[in-house]
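Entry 14. Ran structure prediction on the chain below.
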Amino acid sequence: MAEQINITKKAVENLPLPPDGKRAYYADTRLKGFQLAVTSKGTKTFVVYKKIDGKPTRIKLGAFPDLAVERARKLAQAQLGKIAEGVNPQAEKRRKAAERVTLAEAFEVFEANKRLKPKTLKDYRQVVNKALEDWKDKPLREITPALVSERHRQLGQNNGEAYANLAMRVFRSIWSFAADYYSDEDGRSWLPDNPVRRLSKQRTWYRQTRRRTYIQPHQMPKWFQAVRALQDEPAGSSAETVGDYLKLLILTGLRRSEAAELTWDRVDLKARALTIVDTKNHEDHVLPLSDALVELLERRREQADKAAADAEQAGEDRPASATYVFPGRNRDGFLKEPRPQMKRVVEASGVTFTLHDLRRTFVTVAEGLDIPAYALKRLLNHKMRNDVTAGYIVTDVERLRGPMQQVTDYILARGAEVGGSEQAEGARQPA
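Output, structure tokens:
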């Protein structure tokens, strides 16, 4: 309960301080709703105290002595007048702040509150700092549909159609979050409609055909021969590491980052399985290892143990290979952007490919071998949405081992590579 006093300059100066950690309130006897808050540290702040929409609310006016008593009383009268007219001063303040919020400020809030993976946030930052850099200090309300259409067109001409679409999807996501964040208590946004909607209304998004490329069966012998040339390089070299990495990708269907960031604590050679955590669909992915993959990982494990022992004996830091299955020479410690080695494979084999093509190759082979749909989805860690039957199926790692070995046998047989099952040459051919 606030103590009643006549709030004057002298009265404010002579008020006692409350106990440590406490706050005292003093209500003005001349203007109802005008109060002074005093902390144990001596801070004295003028406030308006009034019920707004049935809720007791305090609105900060300013601190004494920077704000004089009579000026504070006039400000209080103004705020109380607005409240009497049905205006919520706090909501009005938030609305005005929302009208001034810039893209940079909105993105800062987006980063702090949106639960996205570090890599995704990094990609967002790159788009904001490159494609939208000159918009960062511009209020969101000033970024009009016309500006969005023109920037989308410019990016398409100068940076490529795919990048233009990406930039506008990033901007749309930031705006949508900001529209919800900067809203009133009833959920009504203080921002106008998302300007990126114009691209949909006018159908000006660039059409993008999904890539369907993969390593075809007739290309596999030369491709594997070029990969083996990398693997034959000295143990621990970048070329040898990338050779093993490419082979693991095509034999597991893992995403590039899942394999590159794989750590030894996620590989269980006794159980013949590996685990990918924090995946794209936010579920851990346990994958059985075929014979060829066990052989590859056992060899890499021996090399890693030897490198760690040699480093310890020499008094050197623990090598990245002791942590990552595919170490890289960078501050993160794991393999990144193996473009030089991939270029060698392309030049030696004549097969142009991307890392994601290796995942598509795994999928294409598995489908051709008539691997059951549920098993294939589990091998790829795809969610089975809107499928009631899938909810009753528990596919453990051992039930996936047979299909995994079957895919490995076929790929290695077509690549004319000895490994995997002893019956590799007799592996069933996809239709």
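Residues 388-394, 418-429 have pLDDT under 50 and may be disordered. Will compare against last week's run tomorrow.
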